Amino acid sequence: MPENAFPLAWYTSLGAVALLSLLLTAYELFKIFQRDFGRTLRNRYALILFLLNIGMALAVWWFVHRLLAIQPTILTTLVTGLTFPALLRSRFTIYRTIAPATRDGEQKSAVDEISLKMDEMYRNLQSACYKEIDLELARERAALNKQLREAFSAAQIAERLEDIIGNITIEEDRERLQEKLNSIQSVPDEARRHAQLANLLIQLSDRDELKRAIREGTLTPRP
Question: Whose CA is closest to 17, among 63, 3, 183?
């Protein structure tokens, strides 16, 4: 049967699941925070999130390969390591069709209860970590935004944004960002417009380059 093809030793499978969970965590952080990914990795809550995902992935591995008595294989290892959050939400449906340990109704009910509680705990802890990471990044952006507004006028920031956006190669991104810039420029309140322009510049610029510009008092990039 396909699910029993390419069997693995339990310790090999367990180690692979831990590594795959790290890759999944890094991908999720990059998908959410993108340009702030490097700063995200230095956040203490990112470390907690990595440890949480490793722990939960290993718990799911134990649940699948020990409690449900599924033989560890390359396929089950890949599925467990890369999709363990989905396995929790689905109550291990993909495995319960082949697991000899879930044939009676009482055992199925126990699997449901355990998986749902594990999923609830995981989602709450994961959400808490994401919120703390986001808050810390927001505080950093707010401080940089204030420094930019104190150093440069709204017109200077808008001019720099026009230059950056005009040189973006991907047409879809260029048009989307130009539309966003135009929308900000139409904001009637000057202070709010200034703050939003600064935020957009932070999104599109390297932080170290912006800090240099603030120190030197010019947004003109070095040659």
Answer: 63
